[in-house]
Design brief:
176 residues; alpha+beta; Multidrug-efflux Transporter 1 Regulator Bmrr, Chain A; 8-stranded antiparallel β-sheet; two-stranded antiparallel ribbon; 35% strand; globular
C-alpha cells in the first residue's frame, strides 16, 4: 500500500552506476548489476551514502528502457591518487559516474512486492496530473527521456527476503 504523494526538495547527489537497455521482461539484466556496483565501490574503499536505486533515463515500455543501477556516494571521494571519482571512472567500461540533479521531486513510498510498482507509478503520475504538475521529461525518438526518475530501494533484500515487505520510494523530478 503506497503512502500519499508529496513534494520534496533534493540536493545534487553524486553516484556511480551501470547502465543497460532492458525491457520489462529483461529487467533483471540491470537489477542484477547492483552487487557489481557495490563490489566496485568496496574494492576502492568507497562507502555508499544512501540507498541504491534504479534511474529510468528513457522509458518506452513497448520497446526498451534505458536504466541505471546506481549507488549514491560522497561528493568528492578520493581514489588512490586523490582524483575525484568522476575523473577516475571516465575510463571504466562498466561503471559510470553521474549526479542526480537538485530540484523538486514528487515522491511516494510503497511497501510491497516490486511487481506492484507499475500501479504505484501510475498513481503518482495521475496525482501529479491532477495537481497540474509537470515532469522533467523531454520527448525523443526512442521514448520519453527523464531528468531524474528514480526507484530508491529502501530495504536490503539480505536482511528482508520477503519481497512483500520491501519498501521502495519513487522520486520523479518536476520541471522547474
Amino acid at each position: 500500500m503506497p503512502t500519499e504523494p508529496r513534494i520534496v526538495e533534493l540536493a545534487d547527489q553524486p553516484y556511480v552506476a551501470m547502465r543497460r537497455d532492458v525491457t520489462p521482461q529483461t529487467f533483471a539484466d540491470i537489477a542484477d548489476r547492483l552487487p557489481e556496483v557495490f563490489g566496485w565501490l568496496g574494492a576502492r574503499g568507497i562507502e555508499p551514502v544512501g540507498p541504491p536505486f534504479f534511474k529510468y533515463n528513457r522509458v518506452n515500455m513497448a520497446r526498451s528502457m534505458e536504466i541505471e543501477a546506481g549507488v549514491p556516494i560522497a561528493s568528492a571521494v578520493p581514489i588512490a591518487s586523490a582524483v575525484p571519482i568522476a575523473s577516475a571512472v571516465a575510463g571504466d567500461d562498466q561503471i559510470l559516474a553521474g549526479v542526480l540533479p537538485a530540484g523538486r521531486y514528487a515522491t511516494i513510498t510503497h511497501i510491497g512486492h516490486p511487481e506492484e510498482l507499475v500501479g504505484v507509478t501510475a498513481a503518482l503520475l495521475d496525482w501529479a496530473a491532477a495537481q497540474g504538475l509537470r515532469w522533467d521529461v523531454t520527448d525523443s525518438a526512442d521514448g520519453p527521456r527523464w531528468g531524474a526518475r528514480l526507484e530508491l530501494l529502501m530495504t536490503n533484500p539480505v536482511e528482508e527476503p520477503d519481497m512483500a515487505k520491501w519498501e521502495t520510494q519513487l522520486a520523479f523530478r518536476l520541471a522547474d
